[in-house]
Amino acid sequence: MSTRLAGSGCAGCPLTRRGFLAAGCAACAGAAGVLIGGRPARAAAEQDGRMRIRIVYVLHAPKQPGPDWPNVGFDFQPVMERMASLLSKQCPEFDFVTAMAKGPEEAAKILEEDKTAAIGGYIVCQLNCWNRVVQTIAGSGKPTLFVDFQYGGSGGFLVYTAQFLRQKASNLAFVGSSRPDDLVAAVKCFATVKNGGTPAQFAEAVARVRRERTPQPGDLSCKSDKVATLSPKDCLARMKESKILAVEGGPHGPIHQNMGIEVIKVPFAELNAAWEAADKDETHAVADRWQKSAARIEGVSRETLEQSAAMYLAEKAILKKYGANAITINCLGGFYGGHIHAYPCLGFHELLNEGLIGACECDLRSTSTMVAMTALTQGRPGYISDPVIDTSLRQIIYAHCVASNKAFGPKGEANPFQILTHSEDRQGASVRSLLPVGYMTTSVEFSADRKEILFHQGKAVANVDDDRACRTKLAAEPVGDIEKLFTQWDEWGWHRVTYYGDLKEPVFALAEEMGWKVLEEA
C-alpha cells in the first residue's frame, strides 16, 4: 500500500454539496490587502517599470468560521503569506498587490478601486469552494490566472474552470497543481501582456506551459482483476428490482422511467426513530467490531462510535421495511439541522461492504449510478467522491469521507481502514479507506435526464494523506487526456462514482442496451 504525503503549497492547492457560508468577514470586505510588506495598492501604484498584478484570495474568512473544505478553523493566513512571498521572490519583474474577497460584491469593489491602481492583470486563488469571485474579476477583460488551492477550493475551481472553457473566455488561464514552480511558471506568462501581447495570448501561453509541465503518461499496466459482470439484459432486470430510499431528498427526475429504479422518499423523522429504536446489544457489538477491525481510531469517542453503529442499524431497518437495496441521506442538512444525531458514514461503509448501497448527500444521480454499477459488477461497491485534479502529478484524486474497504466486492479481500472525525467539521465519525493501488478503476455518472453516461478511467496509484478536506483520498492516473478532464464539471457537477475494474466494455454494452450515449471525459 503506497501513501503519498501531499504538499501544502498554494499552487495546487469540492455541484451538489456545500453552499458557501454566509458568515460575514470584515477582513474580507475591504478590497485592498496588505500581505506584501504592508504595502497597499496605492503605494504600489507610485512605483513604475514593472507590471502590477493583483492577487485576489477567495475565501469566507482568514480563519474558516464553519464546516467546509478544507475544514472548520483552518488558518488561511500562512497560506496567503506563502503565496505572496513565493511570487515576490520568484517573479521580481512584477509588482504584486493583494486583496481578499468572499463574493461578487467584494470583487466589484476591488475592480472599482483598481481603476486608479494601474493593475495589469489578476491572480485569483480559490481558497474555499463556491465563493463566486473569479467571474467578476475575469469579467474585467484583463488577463486573469485562476489558481486552485488543493483540498480547499477545488470544487469551485473545477466547476468554474469548465464554465470558462465552455464559454471560451479568452482572457482566463488556470493552474491546478500542487507544485509551486508550476504557479511561478504560469505567473511569468503575464510578461506576454507586458511585452505587448493580448490577454488571449497570455492564456495561450499559460496553457502551453501547463501542458509542457504535466508529466507524460506513466506505466498504465495494471494488476490482474477479473470482473464477472452481468449481461446488459440481466443488469437492467436487476435495476428494475431495485429501490432507492431518499431521506429528505429533492426531485429525482426520470430515474424510474429511464432506469427502472424506484425512488421512495423517506423523512428524517423515520430514520431518526429507527436510530433511537436500535437494539443496544447489537449497537455495542457493531461498535466493538469496528474498534477491533479499524487500523486507527482518532478523535472519535466510544459514545460517537455507538451512535454511528445505531445509525447503521437504523439504515438496515428501513431498508428492510421498504424492501430496498439502496439508501441515500441528506446527511449534512440532517446533521447540521439537528434532524439526525449521527453521521451515516460508517453505516454506509458497512452497507457497501455487504453489497448494498449507502450513498452520500442524497445525491440521487450518483445513487442510481451505484445501483446500476453494483448490479453490473455483481456486488462491487461504488465510491462517491469530490475529485481534485493535480497536473504536476498527472493525477485525479477522489476525495470523500465514506468508502468501502472491500473494493472487489463482499467476498473480496479487505484493505485497511481508519475511523476519524468527519473532516469538514471535526465531528462525528467517518472513514478513511486505504484502497488498493495498482488496479484499473472506472469512474462514471449515469444521468437519467440526459440518457448519458459520463465515463473515465484511471490506474489507482496512491492513497493521499492530507488533513485538509475529506478523509479518503484515492489518487489515480487518468487514462487519456488530463486536459480534457477539466471540461465537464459545470454540466455534471462535482461528484463522480468510482469502481475497481476495467469496466469499459460492459458499461458501453449496457449503454447500448439502454439506448444511451457514453461521454468520455478524458
Task: Please describe the structure with a list of short key phrases separated by commas or semicolons.
disordered N terminus, 5-stranded parallel sheet, alpha/beta, 20 strands, 522 residues, Rossmann fold, 19 helices
What secondary-structure arrangement, pairings included, does this model have?
Blueprint: E1 3-5, H1 26-29, H2 41-45, E2 51-58, H3 77-90, E3 94-101, H4 104-113, E4 121-126, H5 134-138, E5 144-148, H6 154-167, E6 172-175, H7 180-187, H8 191-194, H9 199-213, H10 232-240, E7 243-247, H11 255-259, E8 262-266, H12 268-276, H13 280-293, E9 296-298, H14 302-322, E10 326-329, H15 331-336, H16 345-353, E11 357-359, H17 364-376, E12 383-390, E13 395-400, E14 417-422, E15 427-433, E16 440-447, E17 452-465, E18 472-478, H18 489-492, E19 496-500, H19 504-514, E20 517-520
Helix pairs in contact: 7-9, 10-17, 10-19, 12-14, 13-14, 14-16
The level of helicity is 25-40%
Low-pLDDT stretches are: 1-46
Largest sheet: 6 strands, antiparallel, barrel
Count of discrete domains: 2
Radius of gyration: 24 Å
Terminal-residue CA separation: 26 Å
How much of the sequence lies in strands comes to 15-25%
Instruction: Identify the overall geometry.
Output: globular
Number of distinct helices: 19
What order do the strands of the largest sheet run in, or round the barrel if closed?
12-13-18-17-16-19
> Based on helices, strands and strand pairing, what is the structural class?
alpha/beta
Average of pLDDT: 92
How many strand segments?
Answer: 20
